[in-house]
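It is worth pausing here to work through a concrete case rather than discussing structure prediction in the abstract. The textbook approach is simple: state the sequence, then state the predicted structure, then interpret. We follow exactly that order.
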Amino acid sequence: MPSSNLFVGTFVHTTHLGHLEVLHDHIVAVDELGFIEDVCVADSLTGASYLARPEATITSLPQGSFLLPTFCDLHLHAPQYLYLGTGLHLPLMEWLNAYAFKAEEQLDQDPNGLARMVYTRLAERLIRAGTGAALLFGTIKEETNLILADAFQNAGLRGFIGKLSMDKSTRPSYVEASTESSLTSAASFIHRCEGLTAHLPKHQQLVEPVITPRFVPTCTDELLSGLGQLSADLNVKVQSHLAEARDQVDWVKSERGVDDIEVFDRSNLLTSRTIQAHCTFLDSPSLDRLKFAGTAVAHCPLSNVYFSSLPFPLREALDIGVGVGLGSDVAGGYTVDISTAMRQAVITSRIRDSARKEATRQPSHGASSSETGSLAIDWKEALYLATKGGAEALGLKTGQFVRGAPFDAQQINLVDPKSGKGLGQLDFFGTVDRVTIEFLEKWWCLGDPSNRSAVWIQGKKVL
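Step two, the predicted structure:
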């Protein structure tokens, strides 16, 4: 009989958008490879048989604690962690020139020193924030991105690593030499990144390469078309920025004569393998276009406040079935903690809904969301975006506790298991006999890293 790691206690997950499930007094059995073998009620014949296994390792969750799937961050600029929380007063294109390009070039000039330090600390910080998988923009230099992949693999963290492709730049010293060299480097990076973990069993391969045209202003049509072909030939994911900010949108329109969604589409980069960040300037037909293509959106509500004059039409995208997850957008967003993105997503959606009601003078008192056509999302929907929504966008089976899924989980303690007192901002209440919806909402609003005591990725404890 194979050995199992048995987790006994309360489990919380979102099985689908808007539906939160709390599994009290359950067992999640995890096999030797880190996959969920079974989920069952502890006080059942099946549960008893698991608990009777002499070789089983049992982890019993303390009272007032629960396991939650790890978060997914769908949009993070890894080298920009170097200057987190800097220069957010500037418009996007000016900010890129003043800070982003310089920082990325700085890491490319010192990959084994500065870059390795920044990326190692970033991986550690993400794990402490409960993130189990991140989709990352890197720099233009292959070696620096291989160090990023290595840092995430060594930390036991899932990393989707994007070597930037950009054959145009407003910074002459930070650009690839030609379209041909950019395409050659992208293909080379894909093979070298895959080679980093080729010696490991499939379930231990935590990093993979992602084709990453920075955005339309830094890529010629020839480069974009070549990257689209490369993605199709090698079946590799694609990430970029789409319709993010007014200055960027106007730049593309004046230079190419069409919107950037058209440029991506004609380059075969708007596919089911693609995740596009922001999308704040997309109208309804454009959202339909994403739905038809199977392209997912990395919703970054915090950075949108700083760099976009429009919010992302989240409710409309969800209602037509566009895949959406959340992104921190470091360093356009000033924190790697996806909890901030969850809260900001709800805040932004409520502001949108209130503005619409004021504009139309539509009565809201006593009316249901279906009657008012509410644009708001609630905290349960935001939790879905942070976990299962992000996992689906990345093609992962994580994000919920079901048989066959990788065991990617974080332990949340509402109270200190030793003293019984509330932890962090939850210190205003004591004993928690049962994890209720009310307590979960309190944690969602007020929780911080002090409430997180452990993180597992693919069954391995990394925090």
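Step three, interpretation. Residues 365-371 have pLDDT under 50 and may be disordered. The domain at 5-69+400-461 is CATH 2.30.40.10 (Urease, subunit C; domain 1).
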